[in-house]
Design goal:
By secondary structure, the protein is α/β, with parallel strands linked by helices. The chain has one domain: DHBP synthase (Alpha-Beta Complex), CATH 3.90.870. The protein has six helices and nine strands; from the N terminus they run αββαβααββαβαβββ. The radius of gyration is 16 Å and the shape is globular. The relative contact order is 0.25.
């Protein structure tokens, strides 16, 4: 087993135990946990010092998985994901099979289909969505690379992925779209 596979396995084991991980995502470093485990999500909010009314993003590994988590998957959503130049997060109505505290007040869920090799391998092995948020305390600047993450935050998480600590990735702007029932959508952030 190489270091990449080992780190995916260790992160997956932590997620299965309901732990909060610090890990590299397709955009920036994030805090993540099992998006179907309300206690894990509660712990993530506590570490982040985030108000539970603020919803999280859920990472999945393929558009095929959307049907398991949404009552309706508009065909336009598949096209938007397929042709997006940068990571795209879509807020969908009528989510299902998530912990209630991952959802927005209106029952919506923000999902990003990751194309990052580490995240894809992790979500595939975990076989569930990962609730994710940026690796910083609420209200503080977002850390763009590992060294910028607060030492206090690093101490609070249960597991830190030991990959890419010395890499500085250019932060990718995430497009956020709100999907309505029937397939109409609005761009929230480009």
């Amino acid at each position: 087993m190489n270091i990449f596979e080992k780190e995916v396995t260790l992160a997956c084991e932590a997620l299965r135990k309901g732990k909060v991980i610090l890990y590299p995502t397709d955009t920036i470093w994030g805090l993540g946990c099992d998006a179907t485990n309300s206690r894990a999500v509660e712990q993530l909010f506590k570490i982040k010092r985030k108000n539970e009314q603020n919803s999280l993003i859920a990472l999945i590994e393929s558009t095929d998985r959307l049907r398991h988590y949404l009552t309706e998957v508009p065909p336009i959503a598949i096209d938007l994901i397929a042709y997006a130049a940068n990571p795209i997060s879509i807020i969908y109505p009528n989510a299902r099979n998530f912990a209630k505290n991952v959802l927005g007040k209106d029952g919506s869920i923000c999902i990003r289909v990751t194309n990052d090799p580490f995240c894809t391998a992790l979500v595939k092995m975990f076989d569930k969505p990962i609730a994710s948020t940026s690796a910083n305390f609420s209200g503080e600047p977002t850390a763009l690379f590992f060294e910028q993450i607060s030492a206090e935050l690093k101490r609070k998480v249960d597991h830190i992925v030991n990959l890419y600590h010395n890499e500085i990735k250019a932060a990718k702007a995430t497009t956020i779209i709100r999907m309505e029932e029937g397939g109409t959508f609005t761009i929230v952030r480009q």
